[in-house]
Amino acid sequence: MGEKKRILLIDNEAGLCRMMEQILLDHGYLARSFTSPHQAVEEFKASAWDLVISDIKMPGMSGLEVLQAIKSKQHDIPVIMITAYATVDMSIQALRKGAYDMLTKPFEPDELVYRVKNALQQRQLLEENRELRAELEEKFRFENIIGACEGLKSVLERVGKVAIRDTSILITGESGTGKELIAQAIHYNSPRHEKRFVAINCGALPENLLESELFGYKKGAFTGATETRYGLLEAANGGTLFLDEVGNLPMNVQKTLLRFLQEKEFHRLGDTTPTRVDVRLLSATNSDLKEAIKCGEFRDDLYYRLNVVNIHLPPLRERSNDIPLLVAHFILQQNQKFKTAIKKFDSNAMRMLCAFEWPGNIRQLKNVIEACMAMETGEFISSTTLAQFIETDSVTNTVANKSIPVDLDVPYTTALEQFEADLLTTLLKRHGGNIDAAAREAGINVATMYRKIKRYGIRKEDY
Question: Where are the domains of the chain?
Fold first, then answer.
């Protein structure tokens, strides 16, 4: 069982305080009461309490003043206001000033416990959402996108610049190159990061379902529409909508989407009233949209609306230097997930990995590593194990003739540090040695930038 929740009670009636204190103690809470609102506010410390319950009408200091004072010290703590005169005007005032709930005197013990449970559950949900958002923002920081090749570096520099601007972006690249990962990085590094990131694969749904999934429908719009349903555009309001495989959009959906991009509004199926939302649109494709335009399968006016900025992801075969880094990253992930202790691929197996063409790109590499780790019994993954999951005929000659321009024995953390040092040096050069500007583009604060410069021994003459 977790720690007991701490509840602060404020009411000038000592008898009511004692009664509430006893009820809450009986239900497993820690409670402390004050009959002086001034003393309660003075002794209130942020993070010391999980919930505050205060009377609204008290001599010397009103409950609304208590509410404001406590919220100024800890804005996210839920506060329940107690009143004997629950007028609509007073309730609205309290709620506007940040009260979570109103409780009218006299009340039954069960009602008090019910309101307290609701308020604490709401707080827990908010905390979990904050933790999840922080975890996602950390996960999709640019420096967590693995790779050190020049092609990827230039992509990430471009992504860093456009993330903060509210422009439509078309991400192109072969299947498995990480287009959705880049879209998520753009969202979580943009001003919209606190709102939702909603993704849909446009090739995974039939035409009629895709239209209703995106735009929603009004009750009675078609047989089976028994209630009005919001679409993904409304679900992403304030945030980002990512359309994967946008080349598969049917022409009628393309027309509706174009109108939305032009007017910022759309009609749900069967609805005559337009719906307005504020959504940033990111899209991705592994097909040639210009060819689709020539064939009459994609609207050129929609293409130019989606492709305000283009980001092209290089295939893995053009990033062979990054393969050892990616391999070490995926091995680390799998070891943590399944509590295994596999160290790495042996030298022959790593050369095979670097020489393979990877038609399925990073997604295929990750799947092959997971399969090898499931089959391998030793600390090192052998070329024999690897040969079960990739076509060895296609890499035999390449392994013999191709020089792999990487140090296969460099540990993952060392390789990652080398990449980070190179990236920071590049940013410092670009900004003429301006550390503030370089830190801003890297997405870190100035203190962290100075610490990393010292850690990696980056000298002024280097930039």
Answer: 6-134, 145-314, 317-410, 413-462
CATH classification number, 6-134, choose in 3.40.50.2000, 3.40.50.2300, 3.40.190.10, 3.40.50.150: 3.40.50.2300
Distance CA 311, CA 301 (A): 19
Q: What percent of the chain has pLDDT over 90?
A: 37
Residue 409 has pLDDT above 70, yes or no: no
Given pLDDT bands bounded at 50, 70 and 90, which one contains residue 211? confident
Q: In CATH terms, is domain 145-314 a member of 3.40.50.300?
A: yes
Q: Considering only the top CATH level, what class is 413-462?
A: mainly alpha
Helix, strand, coil percentages (3-state) for the chain, rounded to 5, are 50, 15, 35
Interatomic CA distance for residues 245 and 207, integer angstroms: 14
Tally of residues, the chain? 463
> pLDDT, tens digit, for every residue of 358-371?
999 999 999 999 99
Higher pLDDT, 191 or 423: 191
Residue 140: which H helix or E strand, with range? none
For residue 370, the model assigns a pLDDT of 93
The answer, yes or no, to whether residue 127 has pLDDT greater than 80, is no
Read off φ and ψ for residue 309, nearest 5 degrees. Answer: -130, 135
**Per-residue pLDDT tens for 295-311?**
999 999 999 999 999 99
Residue 1 has pLDDT above 50, yes or no: no
As a whole number of angstroms, the distance between CA 56 and CA 63 comes to 4
Strands 380-381 and 6-10: unpaired
Q: What does residue 434 show for φ and ψ, rounded to 5 degrees? A: -75, 105
Mean pLDDT of the chain: 84
Bridge partners of 75, per DSSP, are none
Q: DSSP letters along 202-221, please?
A: TTSS-HHHHHHHHH-B-TTS
Cα separation, 2 vs 306, in Å, equals: 49
Q: Hey, do 6-134 and 145-314 end up sharing a CATH topology, with the first three levels equal? A: yes
Which residues are registered as beta bridge partners of 200? Answer: 243
CB 420 within 8 A of CB 452: yes
- Listed in sequence order, the residues at least 6 apart from 320 whose beta carbon sits closer than 8 Å to its beta carbon are 354, 355, 404, 405, 406
The CATH class of the 317-410 domain is mainly alpha
Structure confidence at residue 101 (pLDDT): 87
At 281, which amino acid appears?
L
For 82, list phi and psi in degrees, rounded to 5. Answer: -105, 135
DSSP β-ladder status, 275-276 and 265-266 = antiparallel
Place of tokens 């820690």: 30
Mean pLDDT score, 202-231: 82
Three-state SS at 151 = helix
